[in-house]
Design goal:
By secondary structure, the protein is of the alpha+beta class. Helix content is 11%, strand content 21%. The protein binds zinc ion (2 copies).
């Protein structure tokens, strides 16, 4: 179920919901954008910083 936000508030994916944005509730009942730019950003990792051995993003040497 989606609806237009009436109030300014935090999105579950970390950005801000503005009044009029199309929103829904995630599995944890947190309000979130239906099509969230912050979620899209995390879905597409920066490949230049991804480990070439395990294809994960991690700090330091590959374990
Ligand atoms: Zn969002
Ligand atoms: Zn690695």
């Amino acid at each position: 179920m989606s609806f237009e936000a009436k109030y300014h508030g935090p999105c579950a994916y970390g950005d801000d919901i503005e009044p009029g944005d199309l929103c829904t509730f995630d599995e944890d009942e947190n309000i979130a954008h239906v099509s969230c730019p912050a979620k899209d950003a995390t879905d597409q990792p920066d490949w230049s910083s991804v480990c070439q051995k395990c294809f994960l993003q991690h700090a330091g040497e590959c374990f």
